Amino acid sequence: MGLYNYTQRKWVYERVALNGSYPDSNVSWAKLYNGKVYHTSTRSMQCNDVMTGEEIWKVNFDQGFGSSGFIIHDGKIFGNNDNRYTYCLDPQTGRQIWKEESSGSASPISYLNGVLYFMGGGDGRLHAIDATSGKHLWRLRSPDVDKNSGAFFYGTCVAVPGQGGQKGRVVATTGLNAYGYEAIR
Question: Where is the Pyrrolo-quinoline quinone repeat domain (predicted)?
């Protein structure tokens, strides 16, 4: 990571290693939030100060965040780890707030009104997890699995806000169809 001052045409800092524990690994899923950059690397998530490049915190895991990545909402980090757990971390400290048994690999997470929605790559189900408590609200099985054993939920999962006092919708795809479900809130 580096920070270049374009006005002064000079580097503030350059080539700060973001993945020191795993030098041959990729840094992925970088997100900026409150003057900090958050990212994952092979088996860790860490936070660096954008202005200095200094590491603020790092949390090691036994697996990586793979294609699932993470999101930051309502002052919390949410991510699906390949170790079959969904995590909620404090973005200031990296402290674990909660951990819920989940699906392992998953689609990217959608967030709507305090609920996390995603499709589990490990179980093929559509998940809804309460963002405050970390408890599952439901795990839906694809209606298409009865027609074709490979038509579990995968691909795209999008939470769409409701309008005019209506609940939102969660749209999830299988290999055969797209389904819309009423959002929990």
Answer: 49-173
> What's phi and psi for 11, nearest 5 deg?
-75, 130
| DSSP bridge partners of 5 | 10
The pLDDT tens digits of the residues spanning 130-179 come to 999 999 999 999 999 999 989 999 988 999 999 999 999 999 999 899 99
- DSSP conformational letter for 63: S
Look up the pTM and report it: 0.89
d(CA 119, CA 133): 19
Q: How far apart are CA 83 and CA 86, in angstroms?
A: 9
Nearest alpha-carbon partner for 25 in 1, 37, 42: 42
Tens of pLDDT, residue by residue over 106-130, are 999 999 999 999 999 889 999 999 9
Residue for token pair 């100060």: 49
Alpha-carbon distance of 184 to 131, in angstroms, equals 12
Strands (E), 44-84: 44-49, 55-60, 70-73, 76-81
